[in-house]
Design goal:
Chain lengths: 305, 196
């Protein structure tokens, strides 16, 4: 047996600066589809996970539909950087029509599928909807007014908006994005996180990144800290007894909410959106304790305040 | 605390899931709810701390088990480097990496003890006794050996017969206080975190 000799420089020294932002990759939806398919095996929500895998695959295939969309110019980027504002902020962004083309392709995929009648009917309705209706649905979803949103159309509309925003996010270079003025919101698009992931390997070993619910960007947040209200006191972690420990609910006594946290060390394949839906049992148990979630997952909208 | 605006915090219990996109799209959450009823929640904590060994003061995360709300005894189950720490970035030396055994050591000092000159046994004493004894011995030694002026008659105010070694895992504030107390007594042989 030969031992590998470690040459000078082989071990990556911890970087002086923590990598603040990880922009999404264009393969994100493909990876998510694979993860959802893998998680759906023998899962209590198996059929829904397979449905979401179909959506994620369709999202990946629809990505080329978003081309030559308007992007913020150099002056806007400079000002956003200066003031810590998201350059692709959802508030006040003029959406290019391309996202509706994506939506129509996504729903067409579901209309012809073998998924439940209600899912196909919802997809069909959206396929026939006027542009103005779709823009209204998008505006409602992005405003965060989830109590009033139509929950049958939300997953489709959100999926299309995710494709549009991911395309724009992948067109940015990380250097143009400043640390956010509002640390609990995505520095790229200003959306709320779906969950957070503690990473493994390389310069971000053991570091925690919040995962954007819309554009898929990930931004660094110190561990053992409430991502919502920024407090570091009274943080505890709830998990399911006998589980691998790859998913926990990071609970904050101060604001009374929790955000899920995934540990790649326990399961290197975790993907925030997919694993969040697959670990809904943890949400059920937290709800029984009367604790609400702060994480936003457009495929898991429901419940009451 | 940031403003909540129109944002609602959702609960995904039985009622919440029943009104969710899952149910509205015709996928039944019943099996997931039934499954959740079989599960039990566990509560763990992660706590930041500083390695007590040396003045590098590497950051630590202490993993604890136990539900305070249920009065279960809590216990530290794992210790690792804090990846967010600006100095150590999650790394620990072999001594620091073995801290869990230090925490749970049967030989760990838990209260003041005194071994009289010539005696072979350590005897447990109270904190008051310990403080009184330390203060008495320091006062006696200082009264006997304090140097107010040197041979040329210049005031020097030093006390060379006693030294003071303070903790490394100290905050700025305790470093400041140790410094003030020890230096104002005239002690020169002194080391603590404030040096670093």
């Amino acid at each position: 047996m030969t031992a590998d000799l470690i040459e000078p420089g082989t071990i990556e020294p911890p970087a002086g600066e923590l990598p603040m932002l990880r922009l999404p990759e264009r393969s994100l939806f493909d990876q998510r589809a694979q993860r959802l398919s893998a998680l759906s095996e023998g899962h209590a929500l198996g059929e829904y996970l397979r449905f979401l895998a179909t959506i994620a695959r369709a999202q990946h295939e629809a990505l080329p539909l978003v081309r030559n969309v308007p992007m913020p110019d150099a002056e806007v980027l400079r000002r956003c950087r200066e003031h810590g504002l998201p350059p692709l902020g959802i508030q006040g962004w003029s959406r290019a029509p391309a996202w509706r083309a994506v939506l129509r392709q996504l729903v067409a995929e579901v209309v012809t599928s073998a998924f439940p009648e209600m899912a196909r009917a919802a997809a069909e309705r959206l396929g026939r909807a006027e542009d103005q209706t779709l823009e209204g649905l998008a505006a409602g979803l992005l405003s965060g007014d989830f109590g009033r949103i139509d929950r049958a159309s939300a997953p489709f509309v959100a999926a299309a908006l995710q494709v549009y925003w991911l395309h724009m996010a992948t067109s940015l270079s990380p250097g143009v994005v400043a640390p956010p003025e509002a640390p609990h919101l995505c520095p790229v698009c200003g959306s709320e996180p779906v969950a957070s992931v503690v990473r493994i390997g390389g310069a971000d070993q053991g570091l925690r990144y919040l995962s954007c619910s819309l554009c898929g960007s990930q931004w660094h947040e110190v561990r053992i800290k409430c991502a919502y209200c920024q407090t570091t006191k009274g943080i505890s972690y709830y998990g399911i007894e006998g589980s691998s420990g790859a998913v926990k609910a990071e609970n904050c006594d101060a604001c009374g909410n929790y955000l899920k946290i995934f540990y790649m060390e326990k399961d290197p394949a975790v993907e925030a959106v997919a694993d969040d839906v697959a670990s809904v049992a943890l949400d059920v148990l937290m709800a029984e304790r009367g604790i609400a979630r702060s994480g936003v997952n457009f495929f898991l909208l429901g419940g009451s305040a | 605390m940031v403003s909540i605006s129109r944002r609602q915090f959702l609960k995904l219990g039985a009622a919440g899931l029943g009104a969710s996109s899952i149910a509205v799209l015709g996928f039944s959450p019943a099996a997931a709810l039934a499954e959740a009823r079989e599960f039990k929640l566990t509560r763990t904590t992660e706590t930041r701390n500083t390695c007590p060994y040396c003045s590098v003061s590497c950051g630590l995360i202490l993993y604890g088990l136990g539900d305070k709300a249920k009065n279960a005894p809590s216990s530290i189950i794992h210790i690792e480097g804090d990846p967010d720490h600006p100095v150590s970035r999650g790394t620990l030396c072999p001594k620091g990496a073995g801290l869990l055994d230090f925490v749970h050591s049967a030989d760990r000092l838990r209260y003041p003890e005194y071994r009289a000159p010539g005696a072979s046994e350590w005897k447990r004493i109270s904190w008051d006794e310990a403080f009184d004894r330390i203060a008495r011995l320091m006062k006696d030694d200082r009264d006997k050996n304090f140097i107010g002026q040197n041979a040329e008659g210049v005031p020097v105010n030093r006390w060379l017969s006693t030294g003071f070694l303070a903790a490394s895992a100290s905050s700025n504030e305790s470093g400041y206080l140790t410094h003030k107390v020890v230096r104002s007594l005239g002690i020169l042989a002194f080391d603590n975190q404030a040096r670093v």
